[in-house]
Amino acid sequence: MPHAEKGMQVGLFGGSFNPPHAGHALVAEIALRRLALDQLWWMVTPGNPLKSTRELAPLAERLRLSEVIAEDPRIKVTAFEASYSVRFTADTLALVKKRNPGVDFVWIMGADNLSDFHRWQRWRKIATTFPIAVIDRPGSTLSFLSSVMAKTFDHARIDEADAPRLAHMKAPAWTFIHGPRSSLSSTALREKAKGEMDSASETPSSPLRKAR
After folding, report:
1. Pairing mode, if any, of strands 75-78 and 39-44?
2. How far apart are CA 208 and CA 211, in angstroms?
3. Which candidate, 124, 54, 129, 70, places its Cα nearest to that of 97?
4. pTM of the model
5. Considering the chain, what is the average pLDDT of its residues?
6. Which domains does the chain have, with CATH numbers?
7. Residue-wise over 10-43: b if at least 16 C-beta within 10 A, else e?
């Protein structure tokens, strides 16, 4: 687990990052700037309980690629969840809170995750552990208002202009942050890579093709 001093404002940005891409880096950059963060922990998870692990790349590979793409020195790429054998976000946040008294944390997630947030294990506990910053993503700008999370915690939503103070607020507290958006997605990148591999195996010069 990265080290943080008391009084710091630290963002927690978790995901499978399978693979990490410029869209993730953009979310991290926006969070650092708009939330006035001292650090951002880029947490590469062992796996998403809501997603299939069939196409999940090895943790070490996802960690290595994340370190390449996360260039800002304030970003701390880590996979500490695997070391502590925690799988669910609620458990991760409880662990972080216990081990870092005096540090002000914010949970960061892309708006595309908001529609399914109520399916996460103990999602209400997550929302009442740390404040949450939802970063705009393509296609999610308007739909976020209809999410179960947004409706349930509508009373706890703060104005975007107050985002720099979010880390100091008592949960539940959350905001939606607009800004530049990237259309990149890990799913699309995996499909593209798979398609390119399939095409390569079917080219006339391929030894496999010649053997047929």
Report:
1. parallel
2. 5
3. 129
4. 0.83
5. 85
6. 9-184 (3.40.50.620)
7. bbbbbbbbbbbbebbbbbbbbbbebbebbbbbbb
For the chain, what is the HEC assignment?
Answer: CCCCCCCCEEEEEEECCCCCCHHHHHHHHHHHHHCCCCEEEEEECCCCCCCCCCCCCCHHHHHHHHHHHCCCCCEEEECHHHHCCCCCHHHHHHHHHHHCCCCEEEEEEEHHHHHHHHHCCCHHHHHCCCCEEEECCCCCCCHHHHCHHHHHCHHHECCHHHHHHHHHCCCCCEEEECCCCCCCCHHHHHHHHHHHHHHHHCCCCCHHHHHC
Judge whether residue 106 has pLDDT over 60.
yes
Residue-wise pLDDT for 131-175, tens only, equals 999 998 776 556 667 899 999 999 999 999 999 999 999 999 999
